[in-house]
Amino acid sequence: MGVLLSNYDCYTSTLSHANNSKRMNKQNPDNSQVASSWNSYWHGTGDVGAYSSGGVNHPVILAFWKDFFQSVKQDYAQPRVIDIASGNGAVVEHAMAALGNQYPDFTCLDVSEAAIANIRGRFPQVNGIVTDARSIPYDQGSFDIATSQFGVEYAGVEAINETARLLAVGGRLAFLLHNQAGSIHQECLESLDAVVCLKESRFIPYAIEMFDAGFKAVRGADRTAYELAAKNLAPAISALEAVMKKYGQHVAGDTISRLYNDVGQIHERIQHYDPSEILGWLNEMDGELNAYAGRMSSMSKSAIDSASFKQIREGLRNRGLTIDRAEPLVIPNQELPLAWVLIATN
Asked: What is the CATH architecture of 49-177+305-345?
C-alpha cells in the first residue's frame, strides 16, 4: 500500500477555519512540578549555550556583566563571590572572562542538582551547593560579591534578603531580575499560552492515535480506524495553525512549528518509519511539553512589577545597603526592557 491519504488535507490551510474546542481552565503546575521541570532541563543542557532562550544571551546582558566584573576586578583583590540560582553557570563564565587570572573564590548555588553538576563539570575550581536560596548555609558576611541572573526572584523576597545577609561590609550585590513589563516576560507568557493551547487541542494524543492506526493500515489492516483518527486530528491541527498565526512561527522556541511540520512530514512518508520510534518520540514530546509549561509558568510568576521592585529597593536600604543602580535594563531603539538591574553596596 502506498502513502496513506497522500492528499491528506489536514495539513492545508483549508482547515484553519475548523471549529476550535472550548478552552479549558489553565492550571499552573505546583512547586514540586516546577522544580522537577527545571532539574530535568538542566540535566539535559550542560553546554555553555544551553539556556539561550528568552534573551539571556543578549549583547546588552553580556555587556552588563562584563562592566560589572571589570569594576569588581578594580575594587577587590581576591573577591569571594556567590552566584544565586546559577542555572547553567552563565554568570560564572562572565566572571572568569573578566577577571582572567585573578580567579575569585566562587560559589554557585542552585536548587537543581543537575545544574550544579553541570557547572562543576565545566568549572572544577568552583564550589557548588544544592540548596534553597531562602536559607543559605553560610555565615553573615561570608562573601564580597553576590550575583544572580534571572534566578533569585524565583524564591521571592526572602531569597533577596538572605543574599544581602551574606554580604561582608563593603560587599556588593548585582541582580538581573525578571521585569513584568519586559520582553522576556512577554515571551514567557506567549510561550506558555501556546503550549497550553497545544495541550488542550490534544494534538499529540490524536497524532499518536493516527500514527498507530496508520502504521497498521500500511501493513494491511482495515483503514477505517486510521481515517477516523485522521479526522479527529484535524481540529487540533487547526488549533496549532491558529497559535502560529497569533504568535508567529517561532513561539515557544519553535516547538509548535517543529512539531506541526514534523508530524506532517512523517505522515507523508509513513511507510519509511519505524512505528516504535515515532510513537516513542511523540510520547516523549508530551512529557517534555509538560515540563516546558512548568518552566514558562515559573518564569512568568517570578516577574517583578514596578511596585514590588520599589519594595525590594526599600528593603535593602532598611538593611543598611546603598542602592547604586536600580532601573530597567533597556535595549537601544526597543520599547520593552529586558530586565530590572539592581546593584547595591553593603
From this structure: 3-Layer(aba) Sandwich (3.40)
